[in-house]
Amino acid sequence: MIIFYIILFAYGAVIGSFVNVLIYRLPEHQDVVRVRSHCTSCGYQLRWFDLIPIVSWVIYGGRCRKCGSRISVQYPFIEALNGVLYILAGVKYSFSIRCLLVCLTMSALVAIAVIDLRTFIIPPSLNLFIGIMGVIGIITDPQGMIKYLAGLFSVSLLLLLIYLISRGRAIGGGDIKLMAASGLLLGWQLNILAFFIGCILGSIIHPLRMKLTGAGKVLALGPYLAAGIIISLLWGDEMIAAYLRLYI
């Protein structure tokens, strides 16, 4: 079992490296597949030994091997975070199709969180990817189809109503699509839980960011929704069961 988790972490770190590419290139509308990884300062095209997740950053002291410019600690952090998330998914879902879908979804959510925090935009391609994961999940678990289809509308309809009433000032279209896509994978119960967790996190963390870091009043909800979805994917069933036990 230890080998399984080591493989999961390594796989997660490699995918985390690609998540960094998405974070950097999607907001700039750059190609994320055909353009080779390169130093953003000098343009040096990175070799395979420059791209070993976490290890290369540590070996080169967080600097470009060619020009010596600093490379953000974000890169190894995202790689390590993604690896840890994959281990947690392995603990929850073991070796299964569901585990793979959850892992890939969480990678997309990490990218969404960082991009939305920086740009206040959730790339439609990432929401579409999560939706595709949900559709595959339904195909592999057809008995739960009603639950997952209900999840598509469980939160997104409410957010759409808020969007229409506020004329887009209270909520973003990307948040609506995110909760619709996640509902296909989570089902209606876990999706509602994810939304509540995201709202609670946002109401606590954003005021702290405003006070401590000078963040603006405009709230990027995507990072907190993404965190809520991840928490629901990993521990949502246990949280709902614990809540129900209080009243049974």
Brief sketch in words of this structure:
By secondary structure, this protein is an all-alpha fold. The chain contains ten helices and no strands.
Q: Spell out the helices and strands N to C.
A: HHHHHHHHHH
Q: Which outline best applies?
A: globular
Number of helices: 10
Low-confidence stretches: none
DSSP summary, beta strand count: 0
| Domain tally | 2
Give the biggest sheet: none
As a percent range, the share of strand residues is under 5%
Average of per-residue pLDDT values: 93
Please state the CA-atom Rg, rounded to the nearest Å: 19 Å
| Straight-line distance between termini | 36 Å
Portion in helices: over 70%
Please state the structural category. Answer: mainly alpha
Topology:
Elements: H1 2-25, H2 55-59, H3 74-93, H4 97-119, H5 124-140, H6 145-154, H7 156-166, H8 173-186, H9 188-213, H10 222-245
Write up what this structure looks like.
This protein is an all-alpha fold. It folds into 2 domains: 1-95, no CATH class; 122-248, no CATH class. Helices cover 70% and strands 0% of the residues. The chain has helices at residues 2-25, 55-59, 74-93, 97-119, 124-140, 145-154, 156-166, 173-186, 188-213, 222-245. It is globular. The two termini are 36 Å apart. The model has no long low-confidence stretch (mean pLDDT 93).
